[in-house]
Amino acid sequence: MKKANGDKPGGNGKKNGKKVGRPRIVDTPEAFDAKVDEYHALCAEAKVPVTFTGMAIHLGFADRQSFYDYQKQPEFSCSVKRARALVEMSYERRLSSSNPVGAIFALKNHGWTDKQRVEHTGADGEAIEIAAVAAEARRAVVGRLAGIAARVTENRLAKKPER
Question: Cα(84)–Cα(67) distance, rounded to whole angstroms?
Answer without folding.
Answer: 10
